[in-house]
Structures are given as structure tokens and as C-alpha cells.
């Protein structure tokens, strides 16, 4: 894995976001030359001085030509929406995420950049599964615009692979959690639980808490992203823990590890919430030689230690 990364010229779209920050650290440690594409410079990015930064507009494609110059591989981590609110304005979702990606693919073709790793969604593209754990070959029937657009992007990547020789690796990532996940209350159950407990705020649970999800610690996502760089054939891989947990069970794990309590505010069930899903990760184990290292308990415990050490989420 390290050999595949070392010396590579890598462009990370969304390199200052949640996953991007962790990936950039992993790439730098592995010896890659990293360029980040973002719309603005954040004031709190510790590794910004270690990378080249190109500012631009993902939606319009402004800045892509400069960002793609002499690049070997693109990591596409950008999403302008989240599952819980994407149905509020599906047109904006398509215009920003899908059209932005099409701008990217056209500019990659013009720049002769033939390699892309795309972060899709293992939690939304399948809809309500008919088999568990869910394999990559399961029908794609998303219930929210976020998932619909992810599927559309996957299909365009397949088209570009078939027609234009693009090497595209799609990682359908489950529900990641870890440091720098700042959309508290909007995305990320575990950071939201911990953040609200620390502030003494009520914890909102949609429905009865029985929905089942697959949670993966961010370090395991990064190891999968790095492993994907060594895969030279276009493919799609589920990236998760391979284990499902109910929301109520996650809350109990967080309470036990942190020693914090929190008042629960129960809200009506949301129609777009999948009842239960966790991913079959055998294909990634076999093809990418990747295996997650953290269970829910060990991941939450490590995350909590980092929060205590740094005094922030």
C-alpha cells in the first residue's frame, strides 16, 4: 500500500473537510505529494503548510485546470449536501454534486488524468436492503436525493471507465466518525451524541432508536482510501465495519465509555431513514487486502481519548 502511494502526485477534493483532513495526513505520511482543492482556506487546518492548495469552485469547475496539472490520481471527497436534508432541494443537490462532478470528469479527460477514487455512500445507495449484510451487487434503491446523486455519479464514473479508459475506484463508505466531524446534529450520530452530552443538551432520536447502521472509525476509512490507490482496475467496494448496531445500542456504548449521560428527546420517525443496513466487506478484504481494525467500542474509546486530550470534538 505504501509503495503505491509513495511519490504519487495526489489531488484531494475537499482536503480540509472531515475525511479530507485525515486522508491528507495519511497520504503525507506515506510519501505522497499532495495538492488540496477547496473553496476557501480554513483558519484551523494544521497541515495546510505541508500541501499545495488550489482554491476554486467545485460547482462551476473554476480552478480545476490548475488543480489537475501533473496529477496522478484524484480523491473525490466533496459533497455539498447531507442525507437528512438533501430531499429539501433535490435540484440544488443535482446542480452542485452531480454537475460539479461532470465538470471534473471533463477536465480530467482534457488533462489526461486517468485515475480517480470516489467516496460514495454505503448507508444510502442501497435503500432498504433485502439481504444483510449488503453486498455490492445489491440493487440500488436510495430513498433520499443524496443517495440518488451518489448512484448517478457512480454510473457516470462507470461510463467514463468504459468509454474513455478512466480507472475509477468507488468506495461505498458506511457511517464514519472521528475528530474534525463538525456538522454536529446534522450528520454523524456518535459525534452528535458526545457533543450534546458534553454541553448538557438533549439527545434527539428519530423514531424508537431501533434503526440499525454500520459505523466505521475514520482511521479505518483512511486505510481503505490508501489501499484503493493500489487497485489498478475499476471497481466498487463496501467500506464499513461489517457489523450493525441499533441507535440505542450506540448511545449505551457512548455513555459507558464517556461516563456522560444525556436526556433523550424522541422525535417522529423520518420516511427516508433506512430501517437497517450494514455492509458486506468481503470484497474489500479480498481485493484491496483491507480489514478494519476498530470495533464500535474500541473506536469510540479511542475517539473519546482524543477529545479529552484536545478538549474539542
TrEMBL record:
It comes from the Bacteria. Pfam families: Epimerase. Pathway: Carbohydrate metabolism; galactose metabolism. Residues 10-240 form the NAD-dependent epimerase/dehydratase domain. Gene3D superfamilies: NAD(P)-binding Rossmann-like Domain. SUPFAM superfamilies: NAD(P)-binding Rossmann-fold domains (SSF51735). Belongs to the NAD(P)-dependent epimerase/dehydratase family. This is UDP-glucose 4-epimerase. It comes from Paraburkholderia silvatlantica.
